[in-house]
């Protein structure tokens, strides 16, 4: 019987398989190398550096004098930090809830194939094109008693009207929430509108045949179909909430007192204004953990569940 010769398998071993893969994908690797460098070296390296030096007594400059969890103990005992993260929770819960509700309602209205849809979509999305600094300054003028809403209403003859949300410790965060909603709801609307446009027309035809009202179709049929869009929208919006800084600086500078302070401003002030690098890095590490708490479940849902199926 003649012996049959077998061609050598290019992926017979781990090293040969990797070399073969590298030859096929070297152009893609070269093109994506700046992004890989940024992700691995800059982001990962800086994150490790931040966590490491948050356990030190670093003041103006970094120093490897380890103090254990002293910086974190001081952080969670600080009244300013307590106010900051409570403000962030309030901002996050209210802004996410209202932006999702308002964004979905606006997306549904635009999904009715109305006239001048492109115009309305541009108007809704335009505030998102502005920076938070510009948004903060614009709303600061509107809330200012000398130039804004109070001045206009009093000029109409209502001289007893008072409207000073920025000067009241009980309303200042609501002013920031209003400004944040004005800027961010348009992005939520666009993402949800994109999700609505992916719904199969057969679903709408079946709902009409079964006599299901349109509002029930949106709530109980379309929304569950849009689950991936909703989760992605939630991750993007929640990550933006954790990073809230420039809107607060432009609108209130953390005042009155520290009643509109947020964690990002706390970190910045201690790192660059308070000459306490270790305390600022401890706060930054807590913020990093908060972001990971948001990202890890999303990555598990997006990629882990697909590998199991």
UniProtKB/TrEMBL annotation:
Pfam families: BPD_transp_1 (PF00528). It is found in: Cell membrane. It is a multi-pass membrane protein. Residues 85-300 form the ABC transmembrane type-1 domain. The chain crosses the membrane at residues 29-52, 88-110, 122-142, 172-196, 217-242, 281-301. Its main location: membrane. Keywords: Cell membrane, Membrane, Transmembrane, Transmembrane helix, Transport. Belongs to the binding-protein-dependent transport system permease family. This is Sugar ABC transporter permease. The lineage of its organism: Bacteria, Pseudomonadati, Pseudomonadota, Alphaproteobacteria, Hyphomicrobiales.
């Amino acid at each position: 019987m003649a012996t049959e010769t077998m061609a050598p398998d290019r992926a017979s071993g781990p090293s040969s398989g990797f070399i073969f893969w590298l030859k096929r994908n070297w152009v893609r690797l070269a093109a994506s190398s700046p992004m890989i460098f940024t992700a691995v070296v800059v982001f990962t390296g800086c994150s490790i550096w931040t966590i490491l030096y948050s356990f030190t007594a670093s003041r103006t400059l970094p120093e490897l004098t380890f103090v254990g969890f002293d910086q974190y103990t001081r952080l969670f005992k600080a009244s300013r930090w307590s106010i900051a993260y409570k403000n962030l929770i309030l901002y996050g819960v209210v802004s996410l809830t209202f932006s999702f509700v308002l964004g979905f309602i606006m997306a549904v209205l635009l999904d009715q194939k109305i006239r001048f849809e492109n115009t309305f979509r541009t108007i809704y999305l335009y505030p998102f094109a502005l920076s938070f600094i510009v948004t903060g300054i614009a709303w600061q003028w509107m809330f200012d008693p000398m130039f804004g809403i109070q001045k206009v209403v009093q000029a109409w003859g209502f001289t007893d009207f008072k409207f000073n949300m920025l000067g009241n410790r009980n309303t200042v965060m609501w002013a920031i929430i209003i400004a944040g909603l004005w800027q961010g709801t348009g992005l939520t609307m666009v993402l949800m509108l994109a999700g609505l446009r992916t719904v199969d027309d057969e679903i709408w035809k079946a709902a009409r045949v079964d006599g299901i009202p349109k509002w029930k179709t949106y709530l109980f049929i379309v929304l569950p179909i849009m689950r991936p869009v909703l989760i992605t929208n939630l991750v993007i919006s929640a990550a933006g909430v954790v990073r809230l800084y420039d809107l607060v600086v432009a609108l209130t500078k953390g005042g009155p007192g520290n009643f509109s302070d947020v964690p990002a401003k706390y970190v910045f002030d201690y790192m660059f204004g308070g000459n306490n690098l270790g305390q600022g890095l401890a706060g930054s590490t807590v913020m990093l953990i908060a972001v990971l708490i948001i990202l890890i479940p999303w990555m598990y849902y997006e990629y882990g569940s697909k590998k199991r199926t």
